[in-house]
């Protein structure tokens, strides 16, 4: 059994109706329970929960301090390639966009490494488009062997792979794999993914199962907020996380919150998600799941990121470039999407310190594991 078997027992329309029919009394009851389940999560992301935002924020802060302390993990993405074989209506890397394609060579990767290490990073997120003929397991192996000499924690966000391929990457030192379903609305998924392997909804949905079976330490989930109703999509994300935590209980998990941003050739969002909505969603995750890591990227504005510190988020990207070689090699090549917070790593570091929090340059779980093995 995989998650798809569970997923098919739920109805998108039924979840939407339950969200719309949630009452303030149900929200209040879920808000003050000592332990919350998926039904409580549904209540807390419902429209009826919006008036409870301040109370949710206070509880979220308390739970985050209890579990993670006053720390914020810093990471940055390193884009290795913008080559892609998919047509996705919202992505600047889509194959139908007439852009200059680039995949970094080992020499170019080394330049990126040197610059990012100079900034202090020890946790790197490797990102590519989905081009299996060029950016494939062989390429990943060579890149990771080179990069692991400089970074203690390596995460990847690439095309879905087979279980045996994830096992190879785990042996090479990959600590976490991020894979976003984009939307859990199977009926309209094809409208956003017109061509390429990514158009296979079920294959992508079952990717976290293959990651879990491979022994990778951490799995990152999320949807592209703005494609469909964020509340329903987020319920299915939580359902997915609940399944994974029960089945692969030794694995750690993170949730990211990418809101649809302007990109080359993309469509405007179908569903606008306001800042208050995103806050509500993050607080709901923390109230429901004390252990899950919550990550916010430079897609978000300076104002939003300034005020989210301390309220539930556990990791932030900083100084990000979303084009291959963007830090040192090819600063003018096409980016995957527009960055909203353009502040430098040093500025974000100072911001976190000014809020009374400690910036952490690596994933402490990986560091602890390396210490035990040494």
Q: If you had to describe this structure to a student in words, what would you say it looks like?
A:
The protein has 374 residues and is α/β, with parallel strands linked by helices. The chain has a single domain, classed as TIM Barrel. 43% of the residues lie in helices and 13% in strands. The protein has helices spanning 3-7, 12-21, 24-31, 38-44, 53-68, 106-119, 137-147, 163-172, 186-192, 201-205, 207-214, 230-247, 275-288, 302-308, 345-354, 364-373, and strands at 71-79, 87-88, 123-127, 153-157, 174-178, 193-195, 218-221, 252-256, 293-296, 315-317, 358-360. The strands form two sheets. It has an eight-stranded parallel beta barrel with strand order 1-3-4-5-7-8-9-10, surrounded by four helices. A two-stranded antiparallel sheet has the order 2-6. Helix 3 packs across helix 4 (38-44), helix 4 packs antiparallel against helix 13 (275-288) and helix 7 (137-147) packs parallel to helix 8 (163-172). The model is unreliable at 366-374 (pLDDT under 50).
Please give the number of β-strands: 11
| H and E string | HHHHHEEHEHEHEHEHHEHEHEHEHEH
User: Helical region count?
Assistant: 16
Adjacency order of strands in the biggest sheet: 1-3-4-5-7-8-9-10
- CATH-defined topology: TIM Barrel
Notable characteristics:
374 residues, alpha/beta, TIM Barrel, 8-stranded parallel β-barrel, 16 helices, 11 strands, 43% helix, globular
In short:
The protein has 374 residues and is an alpha/beta fold. It has 16 helices and eleven strands.
């Amino acid at each position: 059994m995989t998650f798809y078997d569970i997923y098919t027992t739920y109805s998108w329309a039924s979840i939407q109706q339950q969200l719309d029919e949630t009452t303030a009394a149900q929200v209040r009851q879920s808000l003050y329970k000592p332990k919350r389940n998926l039904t409580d999560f549904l209540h807390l992301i419902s429209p009826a929960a919006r008036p409870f935002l301040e109370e949710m924020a206070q509880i979220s802060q308390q739970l985050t301090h209890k579990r993670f302390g006053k720390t914020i993990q810093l990471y940055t993405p390193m884009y290795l390639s913008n080559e892609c074989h998919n047509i996705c209506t919202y992505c600047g890397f889509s194959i139908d966009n007439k852009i200059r394609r680039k995949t970094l060579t080992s020499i170019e990767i080394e330049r990126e490494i040197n610059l990012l290490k100079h900034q202090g990073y020890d946790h790197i997120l490797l990102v590519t488009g989905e081009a299996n003929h060029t950016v494939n397991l062989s390429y990943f192996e060579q890149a990771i062997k080179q990069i692991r000499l400089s970074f203690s924690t390596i995460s990847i966000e690439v095309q879905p792979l087979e279980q045996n391929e994830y096992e190879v990457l785990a042996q090479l030192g990959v600590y976490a794999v991020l894979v976003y379903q984009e939307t859990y609305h199977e009926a309209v998924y094809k409208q956003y993914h017109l061509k390429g392997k990514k158009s296979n909804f079920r294959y992508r949905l079952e990717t976290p199962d293959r990651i879990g079976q491979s022994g990778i330490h951490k799995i990152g989930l999320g949807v592209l907020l703005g494609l469909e109703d964020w509340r329903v999509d987020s319920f299915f994300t939580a359902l997915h996380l609940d399944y994974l935590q029960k089945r692969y209980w030794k694995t750690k998990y993170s949730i990211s919150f990418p809101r649809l941003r302007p990109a080359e050739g993309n469509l405007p969002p179908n569903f606008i998600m306001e800042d208050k909505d995103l806050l509500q969603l993050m607080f709901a995750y923390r109230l429901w799941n004390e252990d899950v890591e919550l990550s916010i990227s430079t897609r978000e504005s300076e104002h939003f990121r300034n005020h989210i510190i301390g309220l539930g988020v556990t990791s932030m990207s900083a100084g990000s470039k979303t084009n291959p070689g963007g830090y040192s090699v090819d600063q003018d090549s096409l980016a995957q999407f527009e960055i909203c917070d353009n502040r430098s790593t040093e500025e974000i570091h100072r911001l976190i310190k000014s809020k009374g929090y400690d910036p952490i340059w690596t994933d402490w779980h990986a560091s602890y594991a390396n210490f035990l093995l040494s």
